[in-house]
Specification:
mainly alpha, single chain, about 75% helix, globular
Length: about 425
């Protein structure tokens, strides 16, 4: 299976500009396509599945936050989730953002982004996050009724409460900012220096390509961390914007990799078609380097320890890229055609993510008096919440246009199975 299947054209790579997209339309018309029928990409089921999986996996990391941070088991789950889940999401998001931008005019692109990102974000911040924060407070701090909690002013800066104005929706705020910057970012990625560097990576031996890409991303992460500490932190420390802006700096290299993967087919092939041996070797070696540097930093405040902590972001970024490559290769193998389960997961990914956090804490608060230990509450929560969210989506969101718009950013109704569409030429 090719990483990107083309239709209505022969032998062309993914479009790198609107001009090439228009040329494809003209070629399709010349080949006798029906008037008004646009060439399209075959659906990338593996990327749909990967994007949805990263969002659905949020239940494991956020349910682990039921613990107060003293249990190694839950710390391990949160650490593993932080290592790759959102980075992988932003790589795929960057890929699709480039696709939407290059296939739309300015107005169409920003209208699409406002509907699919900004509308669910605002709805969640106004209607879901206050409830989620209240339930999180009740779990960690003790009983309080919702009215008192809201009217007294939620203590968003209480470290013990682990609540904030954005809660788990920070990623959508960051994606809105990235989406607004896509025209600028694509212009930068099209610069001769960047294109020559990407072409140089693509021309290297297969085994070396992923390592070079991972090294560039690791250096990018180090640069972004330095930029944050030098520019962002002095201005935003202890403000409501500190965490979202810090996250925007941290994940920008991964979003740019996604954009570049659309612009350069060889980069996408490197991510999803590298053999398992260099991937596994990369995970082991980059993981060992990250562990060694993090251990050397420890709790010390010496200059050497601080340097080790800073440099550790390079192998950490490399490790994340190797894990993402493994996930992409696995997804490409497992999801090559539509299925009812894939369709459901793709349709409900955003609504699941928006509502899963209050659901996690609501279920935990209900069962904790009987189960007691968080170790017993956790598996029940991760087993019960996904089917509840699926039922909420299928019964209360998908059938109703206003609900679809608010919680998925879509206006179209979708069946569980994807309808067959005509293909102009394969």
């Amino acid at each position: 299976m090719r990483p990107i299947a083309m239709v209505a054209g022969a032998g062309l790579q993914p479009w790198r500009s609107r001009q090439e997209w228009l040329a494809m339309e003209q070629n399709a018309a010349a080949d006798g396509a029906a008037p008004g029928v646009r060439p399209r990409l075959a659906r990338l089921y593996h990327l749909d599945a990967l994007r949805a999986s990263m969002m659905l996996m949020g239940v494991f990391g956020h349910a682990a936050a039921l613990d107060d941070g003293s249990d190694w088991f839950f710390n391990g789950i949160r650490g593993a989730s932080d290592l790759f889940r959102m980075a992988c999401f932003f790589v795929v998001a960057g890929f699709f953002s480039a696709m939407v931008w290059l296939r739309s005019d300015w107005l169409g692109y920003f209208r699409n982004r406002l509907r699919q990102l900004a509308v669910p974000l605002v709805a969640a911040l106004l209607l879901v996050v206050p409830v989620a924060n209240w339930l999180v407070w009740r779990w960690h701090e003790g009983p309080i009724d919702f009215k008192t909690f809201i009217l007294s002013g939620p203590p968003y800066f209480s470290a013990a409460a682990m609540i904030s104005w954005h809660s788990h929706m920070w990623f959508l705020a960051v994606l809105c900012v990235y989406s607004a910057l896509v025209p600028l970012l694509i212009a930068v990625l099209r610069l001769g220096l960047v294109q020559r560097m990407a072409g140089w990576v693509e021309r290297q031996p297969v085994v070396a390509r992923l390592w070079l890409l991972a090294a560039l991303v690791g250096l990018g992460q180090l640069a972004m961390r330095a930029a944050w500490h030098g520019l962002g932190l002095p201005l935003l420390e202890a403000t409501p914007l500190e965490f979202p802006v810090k996250s925007a700096f941290s994940y920008l290299p991964f979003f740019c990799v996604g954009l570049l993967a659309w612009l350069r087919p060889g980069i996408m092939a490197t991510l999803e078609r590298t053999a398992w041996a260099p991937i596994v070797a990369g995970v082991v070696l980059a993981g060992a380097a990250y562990w060694a540097l993090s251990g050397a930093a420890g709790e010390k405040a010496t200059t050497l320890a601080q340097l080790a902590q800073a440099v550790s972001w390079v192998p950490r970024g490399m490790l994340t890229v190797f894990i993402i490559a493994a996930l992409m290769r696995l997804a490409l193998y497992l999801f090559q055609r539509p299925s009812p389960l894939l369709r459901l997961g793709t349709n409900m990914a955003l609504s699941f993510y928006i509502f899963h956090l209050p659901a996690v804490y609501a279920v935990a608060l209900l069962v904790q008096p009987w189960l007691g230990s968080t170790r017993l509450v956790y598996p029940l929560v991760v087993l019960v919440v996904p089917p509840i969210m699926a039922l909420v989506h299928v019964l209360l969101i998908e059938p109703f246009a206003p609900m679809r718009l608010l919680w998925t950013g879509r206006t179209d109704a979708r069946t569980v199975m994807e309808p067959k569409q005509p293909v102009l030429a394969q």
